[in-house]
Amino acid sequence: xxxxxxxxxxxxxxxxxWGTGVFGAVVYPVARYLAPPDLPEAATLSASAxxxxxxxxxSGRVVPFGSRPAIVIRTAAGELRAFSATCTHLDCxxxxxxxxxxxxxxxxxxxxxxNGRNVAGPPPRPLEAYDVNVKxxxxxxxxxx
Amino acid sequence: MWARLxxxxxERLPLADLTETLRHKTVPHHRYSIWYYFGGMTLxxxxxxxxxxGLLLLYYRPSASEAYESVQFVVTRVPFGWLxxxxxxxxxxxxxxxxFAHLFSVLxxxxxxxxxxLTWVSGVLLLLLTLAFGFTGYLLPWNDVSFFAxxxxxxxxxxxxxxxEGLVRFMRGGNDxxxxxxxxxxxxxxxxxxxxxxxxxxxxxxxxxxxxxxVPPSVERRAADDPAALRAMPFLPHFxxxxxxxxxxxxxxxxxxxxxxxxxxxxxxxxxxxxxxxxRPEWYFLWxxxxxxHVPPTVAGINGEFLAVAAxxxxxxxxxxxxxxxxxxxxxxxxxxxAGVGALAFMTAMTGLALAGAAP
Lengths: 145, 360
What we know:
A: alpha+beta, 2 domains, six-stranded antiparallel sheet
């Protein structure tokens, strides 16, 4: 013969078990639903970056590199260089500042030199450098192996 | 007609109870009473946002290819579309300002004291929700400033250890700010946040009704010596009419702002364009933006951004739990007062620096 209080505690336990089960069965799929699925993307290895002649000395151009932006600059000395255009601080897109002769991020005033090194402001890391090749006036930029 | 309808309604609705309660409701009347109007003002502006937001929904299209054009259509082709959109934008800003004024007045008048702890907690949660409304609504026109503001705002979460990357993906609906982010923030802005806010506003108002309006300690002390010094004003109609007058004034102010300073739409977002020069967030996030600008990349080997974010999260938690951590002695209250003044001074100074600092 089970005492009423013993029966009550069994029922309470069952009620708790039931409640936890329902809660988990609702929360788990919702939590998984909220996190977006991984969409594997083919790693971009190279991209075209437009006409070389049109890129004047001491200027820059932001171009698509896969789903991310890249920046191609022609230094005042005429040399072409390319970097990832995503600021390493908080993900803004950088631009070339002819007056500073530096790569500059408008969001928090971060600055990189012409080698992509973070030289002023909050950026914690340098910009990733890409290889630059020119063929028939067409600039091609490529991720370094 | 009303004479016949009234008994019919009375039999079915608790109208008599309601009017009886309202007839007895009073509001303390003293030198700080002006600050009592900011709660109602915030509620009025919330109502404006629900109304104008519902109207904007009739034309808005939440996709990266159509959002900007649909807002452009609202402001250029839809009759009074410019007015509705500008009022939605201006009322959002005034609502944040009013909510902050409400928070600081409750803080400085020590209205968070027992038994109003939960009123304070629900109020702070409502302020955070208001900021979340601002953040999620900002991207919806899909212009270049809002695009980069959202990239920065969501990337800040990446500095949180362990769960940071997951948080960023949760907010962006992927690795980058794309059309998926727009759809996601739209869902938060028009469905999930309003549902939570409505429930919380109901809870907050229920508690305000339950506990009545708090009287500041200084007024309480004076009333202890001279009970006649504690005057009160009937809520109906005296306080309510004053409320309505203030709301009408703000409505006129918003119409004026919307007409003479219409909210800019800017250029359409372009993922492959540099961040525009002079970009900065809305004024209520400026102090945080300026702080992030001055934090060095690493401090004593720790990621500087993480330190700044941790300090802000710590501050927000302290504000949320204020009634439970603040001492309820005159000394404790002085401490709260100075902490409040300090926080206000820091936020004002940082905002001033951000406004003064032009691009190099």
